[in-house]
Amino acid sequence: MKTYHGSCHCGAVRFEADIDLSQGTLRCNCSICTKVRFWPAIVQPSAFRLVSGEADLTIYQFLTKRDKHLFCRHCGVRSFGIGSSPRWGEFYAVNVTCLDDVTAAELIDAPITYLDGRNDNWETPPDEVRHL
Predict the structure, then answer these.
(1) What is the pTM of this model?
(2) Which terminus has fewer CB within 10 Å in the chain: N or C?
């Protein structure tokens, strides 16, 4: 477990998160994850701390409106999201590409689990993942 510091592109939104990247990251083929190239690590709410920028966040929700897709209203970067699922309960999905102090080696070594969100089949990976 390591405490990472992250931010959006303009720096208005800043956060800290306790993440064990060896436990893995996700890549999903659902419409929003594919379009924004979202690459999250899942953390429990107690492991996430918003340091600054709450007023600078905008929320986008669709379909069930269960998950909150947050982005900076200035630069548009999606640093993290908030969700709920049977697998993880309440969670934060931290975009690992927004971690300011993560190394390339840590990202390369982080295992990736592929999710078939496009077909609402969260237990089986999609047939094709090379584009994710």
Answers:
(1) 0.93
(2) N
